[in-house]
Amino acid sequence: MQTGVWISLTLYFVAMLGIGFYAYRKSTGNSEEYMLGGRDLPPAVAALSAGASDMSGWLLLGLPGALYAAGLVQAWIGIGLFIGALVNWIVVAPRLREQTQRYDNALTIPEFLANRFPTQAVALRMVSALIVVVFFAVYTASGLVAGGKLYSTAFHGSYHMGVWLTLGVVLAYTVVGGFLAVCLTDFVQGCIMMLALIIMPAVVLYAGGGGGFAQAGQTLSGLQGFTLSWWSDDMTVIGWISLMAWGLGYFGQPHIIVRFMAVRSVREVATARNIAMAWMGISLIGAIGVGIFGRAYVERNGIALADPETIFILLAETLFPALVTGFLFAALLAAIMSTVSSQLLVSSSSLTEDFYRLLVNKQASDRTIVNVGRLAVVAVGAVAAVIARNPDSEVLGLVSNAWAGFGAAFGPLMILSLTWRRMTGLGAVAGLVTGAVTVIVWIALGWNASFLGGPGVYEIIPGFLVSMIAIVAVSLATTAQGEFREITAS
């Protein structure tokens, strides 16, 4: 069994490293190539790269685990995400692709904000870069936790060894090949993830005489704390809004929207959008199927599963031959590594462009920036590994906190900066700070778990609203000289 699994995983690792070497030869000559692939991504690569870097181990561990534990009611998270992603592609993608190039060819989100609001350039770059690095350290840690869980559960090895092995492989191709390596590996990884999420639910549904949908429904009916309904007895309106509010986070995720900046042309954004949404729809349905049908399989066969987030791993080991199990584990690694690599690269870009070049060496050459960026990738990865040291960490919990932080800090800011001519630099700074601080305070006070004696409110909701109000109020109360630039949606 182990031999076949390792053969599949070895082939996968070799392929990822080969892509990294190809990207090194193709697109690491200057900072624009290393950080944005020369703004020359084909639509399909941009689409699957955005999707794969978005979904991460959450798609194969966190979401199926939530559905396994509570039932179909948790699928509202996926619906909210799908709606949010679609609006993001329609509203943000074409405008960001056009404006980042028009405003002095900005290579990072902080740099774009500085160019868009020149009177607050330094403050915007410093604050936004700080938020990027802090929240991405937590977000990257969630991916490393998933890698540790895979290694300890599937191979009965050390959790911490799994964390460092995952980080090591990601660093190998990210440090060498930069943005193009990340996007090309994302494309391959996205294809693997989607295939796995098509194959597994179909097999699980009929495995061991499962009997299909009817038998699964009969097995699951009456389970305590589990429902096949879209609305459970303990679901409140606030709880439903909190699940759907995950979609608000899309507008402010730097590792996703940076793909919009790298699409080959504005005209090809629509093609990329259609590919991305088709991929996302299929993958989300598959993940829901893994959680629901996986619970039916476990109950039918009397299997004890201590951690619901490992249902994908259990099914891969139990139902498939070794080589296929290796492929499914590769799909899980793909989900993990595609996001970790994207987050490390965006963090690195902010550290190099918005700290090093801004404060340390304004005359740094492109070669120097590329090398500093590589060192920054390693540094952020090491910090994330330290955060991920607790094997009891939950992937979904870490993702939800980081997702809310980015969504609240950058979401309203990106929407308004791309569409509202009256917005000012002081308004942008106010939105960044209030959004991030609100999320942090909300989590620290435990209001995401229980609010005013009732159910918790997902921290992205107050953070997003406070940030939006702050931007509008401060912008209307201030004037901005030289910042009312023409806003176009190409």
Describe the structure.
The protein has 490 residues and is an all-alpha fold. The chain has a single domain, classed as Sodium/glucose cotransporter. The chain has 18 helices and two strands. A two-stranded antiparallel sheet has the order 1-2. The chain is globular, with a radius of gyration of 22 Å. The mean pLDDT is 83.
Could you name the CATH class?
Mainly Alpha
The CATH topology, please? Sodium/glucose cotransporter
Question: Tally the helices: what do you get?
Answer: 18
SSE series: HHHHHHHHHHHHHHHHHEEH
How many domains comprise the coordinates? 1
| Average pLDDT score | 83
Question: How many E strands?
Answer: 2
What Rg, in angstroms, do the CA atoms define?
22 Å
Tertiary shape? globular
The CATH superfamily is identified as Sodium/glucose cotransporter
Structural class: mainly alpha
Helical content (DSSP H or I, runs of 4+): over 70%
The percent range for strand residues is under 5%
Residue windows where pLDDT falls under 50 for at least 5 positions: none
**Distance between the first and last residues' Cα:** 54 Å
Largest sheet: 2 strands, antiparallel
